[in-house]
Amino acid sequence: MTFFFEVLIGGLLSGVMYSLVALGFVLIYKASGVFNFAQGAMVYFAAITFVGVTEFDISPWIAFPISLIVMVVLGLVVEKVVLRPLVNQPQITLFMVTIGLAFFIEGLAQLMWGANVRGLELGLQDVPLEWVSERWGMSISKFDLAAAGVAAILVTSLALLFNRTRIGRALRAVADDHQAALAVGIPLQQIWGIVWGVAGFVALVAGLLWGSRNGVQFALTFVALKALPVLILGGFESIPGAIVGGLIIGATEKLAEVYIGPMVGGGIEGWFPYMLALVFLLVRPEGLFGEKIIRRV
Amino acid sequence: MSTASNATATDAATRKDAVTTVATMPYLSVNNIEVIYDHVILVLKGVSLEVPEGKVVALLGANGAGKSTTLKSISNLLRAERGEVTKGTIEFKGQRVDKLTVNQLVRMGVCQVMEGRHCFQHLTVEENLLTGAFTRNVPRAEIALSLDKVYHYFPRLKQRRGSLAGYTSGGEQQMTAVGRALMAQPKMILLDEPSMGLAPQIVEEIFEIVRDLNGKEGVSFLLAEQNTMVALRYADYGFVLENGRVVMDGAAKELAGNEDVKEFYLGLSPGGRKSFRDVKHYRRRKRWLS
Ligand SMILES: Nc1ncnc2c1ncn2[C@@H]1O[C@H](COP(=O)(O)OP(=O)(O)OP(=O)(O)O)[C@@H](O)[C@H]1O
Ligand SMILES: [Mg+2]
Fold it and tell me: Which one of A297, B147, B238, B264 has the minimum C-beta count within 10 Å?
């Protein structure tokens, strides 16, 4: 039983990392209806920028705000230069644009900082917490726990932003009905700018955590693919959905790997989340927390 | 250069016209506008109308006549629908407003309540109202006062303040939409089909509130309605649109008593529905050709 909980908790904690990436997608999708394929590229760009800056012997405490500014500016520029002229175009056009954008950002990242793999040291070691292993005989990673803590803080502040502030209310209004938001005088572009800026920030946090776990390399862009089943599970428009979806995916993929894996020869972790998502799509296409489409006559 | 002087000459002419038709200086004036959607679909073919300060003006016409398009050209929501005002001018308080953004226009005091209410479904009624105050950078206390005022005019909304707007009734959503516009402290509300899909009793209730707001808050209204008889009972003046042109205008009482209006809108004619275009003597001065 201890082992079960160890796997479960480890899975939940790593699920938080998926949630972080999914969150970036949700923010942009919710406010502008754009499925931002470039989110993974942004995560990579953020991580490599941070590492690149620290390579100039700049302390991480200064590198963080610098990367943050870079990411927010990147988000704003993308919104202004790429998406604004395409406003009112069909969703599929916008989606294609973000695919192009993904390649552009990846290229830009490598142009600026080179393509070699780097390590990212946040001072958090991926070692078991001693008091937990002493008391319960489970090994829970310090790193995972800290990552979960960071994610929790991020999500709480986003929730506060969305639900307690004037800008947040405007964000939700825009997400609900563009035209009506425009009619009450909410400048859509300003709101989209803010959303892209926030998405840049989320990408930075995700990039730092993923980068320090797996190394900062091109493969970081693929974490976006990991977020896909999370989004299907949690719903594309729901922040709580991204969190819960991430937890479910994280936990089930680890449990499946450990308990079902041996029966089918292992290697389940890679595809299990997608299968889970597919099954889920059939049962509840709008996701666990996807906004119910309110229909009234 | 010559086109500019031409335009001013036309402006002056229309303004003089306005004085003769409505007998007050126009507050909002739409001069001869032409509207094209998607660069090719010509929808308004020279519409002119005026709303005097503190009045309720009805804009009447059948489906597709161009009522909503006219309102959206004034509020500048047109551009978001790939529409464009290609000719003519729009003035509010003597100032050209056709190049302003919606945000700037709301700040000036012109607010549109769109056809079909368009409440933010996943926001509560109160949050909906608060978004209406987005353009006002004033202390919270002042916003709270406006909120109280809206609840005073729409007591029903106060009861439902915590419900998601999407789950309230059609009438409550219409009230929310009007209340939301009110939160911006508008001088002029462009109200598009408030009666759409509502029971007659609720329609009366909403029009009573419009009259109240007009009388007590001094808000001017331009309201587009298919429900001709109700609109004319509450309006001071009316314009009838057909196929993107104004075919008739007059004081509300006159229009309401007019045989052809009755015939056309209530279908009382033995020969089936007639078009105003067939009724020769009602063809308006051909301003759109100027
Ligand atoms: N976004 C658009 N693109 C192209 N054509 C449009 C658009 N919006 C409206 N139209 C066309 O313009 C004409 C006038 O439409 P409008 O909505 O202004 O009419 P309306 O008088 O408000 O009618 P209703 O009573 O049905 O609301 C219609 O023929 C309509 O098909
Ligand atoms: Mg209409």
Answer: A297
Q: Closest approach of chain B CAs to the CA of A171, in angstroms? A: 10
Residue B72 sits at the chain A interface (C-beta within 8 Å): no
Which chain A residue shows the shortest CA-CA distance from B122? A176
Stretch 33-92 of chain A: residues touching chain B, C-beta under 8 Å:
88
pTM of the model: 0.80
Write down the CATH number for the domain with range B25-257.
3.40.50.300
Question: Which residues of A fall within a CB distance of 8 Å from B198?
Answer: none
Provide the β-strand partners of residue B238.
Answer: B58, B250
Q: Cite the residue boundaries of each domain of chain B with CATH code 3.40.50.300.
A: 25-257
Rg (CA), chain B: 19
Which residues of chain A, if any, have pLDDT below 70?
A: 132-133, 137, 290-297
Q: ipTM of the predicted structure?
A: 0.81
Contact A172 B122 (CB under 8 A): yes
Residue A147 CA to residue A23 CA, distance in Å, equals: 15
Q: Are B248 and B240 within 8 A, CB to CB?
A: yes
Q: Which of B82, B102, B121 sits opposite A183 (nearest CB)?
A: B102
- DSSP state letters, A92-134: HHHHHHHHHHHHHHHHHHHHHH-S--B----S----B-HHHHH
Question: What SS3 state is found at B134?
Answer: coil
